[in-house]
């Protein structure tokens, strides 16, 4: 017996919720506690990968909802990115950065784009 739809979506949202909590936990660390990536622009690459991963996780509970689900995942991700940058303004040695926010949004958009592009292949393989 499969769980009800709402419960199933909530279970599918759990990884995204846990990941988001981890992001906020790491964002609340003082600036002096942050290691350097040693790569020029490494901070931006980390943001891109971090939010690409979040975007993929946000797509899990909205599967089957078509463009509305993808738009919802994107909207939730963008709101969370704004919250994350706002939280950083309250942490010593950290600051909210519009550039970081823009890269966060790019990571989310890339995750949604990958899902859109993978859709026909998933359908052909009988996954969807």
Structure commentary:
- This protein has 128 residues and is mainly alpha-helical.
- It has one domain.
- 71% of the residues lie in helices and 0% in strands.
- The protein has four helices and no strands.
- The protein has helices at 5-27, 42-59, 66-88, 98-124.
- The longest helix has 27 residues, at 98-124.
- It is globular and about 45 Å long.
Please summarize what this structure is:
This protein has 128 residues and is mostly helical. It has helices spanning 5-27, 42-59, 66-88, 98-124.
Please render the helix and strand layout as text:
Layout: H1 5-27, H2 42-59, H3 66-88, H4 98-124
Helix pairs in contact: 1-2, 1-3, 2-3, 2-4, 3-4
Structure characteristics:
single chain; 128 residues; mainly alpha; globular
Count of structural domains:
1
Q: Measured on Cα atoms, how large is the radius of gyration?
A: 16 Å
Secondary-structure content class: mainly alpha
User: Helix tally?
Assistant: 4
Task: Give the ordered list of helices and strands.
Answer: HHHH
How much is the average pLDDT? 87
- What characteristic shape results from the CA principal axes? globular
Q: Which range does the strand content fall in?
A: under 5%
DSSP strand count:
0
Beginning-to-end CA distance, first to last residue: 20 Å
Largest sheet: none
Parts with pLDDT < 50 across at least 5 consecutive residues: none
Helix amount: over 70%
